[in-house]
Amino acid sequence: EIVMTQSPATLSVSPGERATLSCRASQSVSSDLAWYQQKPGQAPSLLIYGASTRATGIPARFSGSGSGTEFTLTISSLQSEDFAVYYCQQYNNWPRTFGQGTTVEI
Amino acid sequence: EVQLLESGGGSVQPGGSLRLSCAASGFTFSTYGMSWVRQAPGKGLEWVSTISNSGDSTFYADSVKGRFTISRDNSKNTLYLQMNSLRVEDTAVYYCAKSGPFYFEYWGQGTRVTVSS
């Protein structure tokens, strides 16, 4: 099983600042990496797939990068609606696995 | 607009069974794989199972293999998860997701399953 490790667990930032979230895979997943956002009481929603491709309707302030084992999600200028939990997920191998999540808080 | 509506959750005793359903609309259901993902209270996301568009191929997490069965009825645009021999640790919100075999593109709002004596 591929273990996905996210850091930091919690990221405290101010509105308008840049946020950088990391995700590491225990073995290479190529670019088969997705990022999701989950707000309290809501279902997760897809942000990024293929490590760097924004899903439909996702603002350009969200960007993904990386390949192999190291990935980054960057939010260029945090808006109030961006405070949430973010998960990475690999789909290179079965079982599909998620990171434990990074909470972006004010 | 893609819509996924889960139902069938509830409270059950350990060893019991539940059948979850997910009614899909807004896309051609029969051309996409579908999945179930769960989230225990206060915890992260855990992939549970995936089924191919035709239903010929199924995949399961080790934690549910042999106890849960994923299926679909393409004539009814509905995904199912039959859960048997339920354990306390199966307590979670269960989400269905339009997925193909890859990432989870759209998610339902979830249905809550509580396993407790």
Quick gist of this model?
With 106 residues, chain A is an all-beta fold. Chain A has strands spanning 4-7, 10-12, 19-25, 33-38, 45-49, 53-54, 62-67, 70-75, 85-90, 97-98, 102-105.
Write the layout of secondary structure elements.
The complex is a heterodimer of chains A (106) and B (117).
Chain A: E1 4-7, E2 10-12, E3 19-25, E4 33-38, E5 45-49, E6 53-54, E7 62-67, E8 70-75, E9 85-90, E10 97-98, E11 102-105
Parallel strand pairs in A: 2-11
Antiparallel strand pairs in A: 1-3, 3-8, 4-5, 4-9, 5-6, 7-8, 9-10, 9-11
Chain B: E1 3-7, E2 10-12, E3 18-25, E4 34-39, E5 45-51, E6 58-60, E7 68-73, E8 78-83, E9 92-98, E10 106-107, E11 111-115
Parallel strand pairs in B: 2-11
Antiparallel strand pairs in B: 1-3, 3-8, 4-5, 4-9, 5-6, 7-8, 9-10, 9-11
Describe this entry's structure for a reader.
The complex is a heterodimer of chains A (106) and B (117). Chain A has 106 residues and is mostly beta strands. Chain A has no helices and eleven strands. Chain A has strands at 4-7, 10-12, 19-25, 33-38, 45-49, 53-54, 62-67, 70-75, 85-90, 97-98, 102-105. In chain A, strand 4 and strand 5 form a beta hairpin. Chain A is globular, with a radius of gyration of 13 Å. Chain B is an all-beta fold and 117 residues long. Chain B is 0% helix and 50% strand. Chain B contains no helices and eleven strands. Chain B has strands at 3-7, 10-12, 18-25, 34-39, 45-51, 58-60, 68-73, 78-83, 92-98, 106-107, 111-115. Chain B starts with a strand and ends with a strand. The model of chain B has no long low-confidence stretch (mean pLDDT 96). The A-B interface holds A 32, 34, 36, 38, 42-46, 49, 55, 87, 89, 91, 94-101 and B 35, 37, 44-47, 50, 59, 61-62, 95, 101-110.
